Amino acid sequence: MIALLLVLGVLMLVVTYWPLVVAGLVLYGVWRWGVAPWQEARARQVRERLRHAQARQEIDDIAFATVRAMYEAATPGDIIEGTTVEVERG
After folding, report:
1. Residue 75 backbone zone (phi > 0: left; psi -120 to 50: alpha; other: beta)
2. How far is CA 90 from CA 24, 66, 68, 75, 77, in A?
3. SS3 at position 4
């Protein structure tokens, strides 16, 4: 009996305040299927851009270390293969 009264009370509130219920459902729908996916896509894009920048930095570091090692390994007068750099040390 109490459950029936609770159900009737909730139904009376829904019937009385149906515009607020509809507005709440519309706001939830806009958030759930509009704003949240957009924020998630934007965050994914930012993470991918950051990962790309970090990978680019690692590649540049490796290239710099390789060139430095080639230069240090060369003897004076050598030409480093694949470049036009002639090693001149005094």
Report:
1. beta
2. 79, 22, 17, 11, 11
3. helix
pLDDT of 8: 86
- pLDDT mean values, one per 10 residues, the chain (90 residues): 86 84 92 95 97 96 86 69 56
Tokens 């759930």 belong to residue: 32
Rounded alpha-carbon distances, angstroms, from residue 6 to 3, 15, 18, 22, 86: 5, 14, 18, 21, 90
Sign of CA dihedral 79, 82, 85, 88: negative
User: Which pTM value belongs to this model?
Assistant: 0.56
